[in-house]
Amino acid sequence: MIGAGHVATHLSKALQKAGIKVLQVYSRTAKAAASLAAELNCEYTIKPTDINPNADLYLFSVTDNALPNVLSNFPYKGVFAAHTSGSHSIQLLTDAGFRSGVFYPLQTFSKSIEPVFSTIPLCIEASDQNGLESLSQLASTISNDVRHVTSSQREIIHIAAVFSCNFTNHMYAVAEDLMAKNNIDFDILYPLLDETIRKAKKSRPALVQTGPAARNDQNIIEKHLNQLATLPDYQKLYNFISESIQSQSGK
To answer: Which terminus of the chain faces fewer neighbouring Cβ atoms within 10 Å, N or C?
Structure first.
């Protein structure tokens, strides 16, 4: 396991729980490498030259920014390697001299929350058929949803994931802040959030869009914008999203 962050931690623990032997953890940070290795009962190193040469698969699970540099410092060529990135192409590994693959779990990971891997879509890709079969078999040990996805498809999935997860969570944070500023508990919105997700899963999201922008209710929109006058960033965000909704609905 190359990396010891959130994805690397949860992924390696899930693989080991499924009976896959993690030989070693590599990380540039000794504390992170030692911590994960202790959980996995395996060796760790912070030196690329000390990475175990006998693994069947080298799984690179580092930040997108760090991945090119980590690859350039990897001591072995021609070995089977896969990365867990949603935005990097498989070609990055191929160009670095590996038998290459992708092992991308489509989920958001946090340190303190244990994910249920059996429900997580695992998007896999490989440079050859043997590699694809190996990754498919590996993925099937931890997930019931394994999909063969190309690099170009995965890049679009990653953008969509940013919209549907990261941006949506930011909206939750904005809503929570507005509520806190007025001494209202955020949990009053939980049933609304649950119903929004339920409808989006049952139908096409665009077909179940509600709210003043979807109704083209300019009086309410203007009222909300005036109420947000002392919070200009939120006001701009409200106006931009409202215009986007109206544009998509043709209103």
So the answer is: C
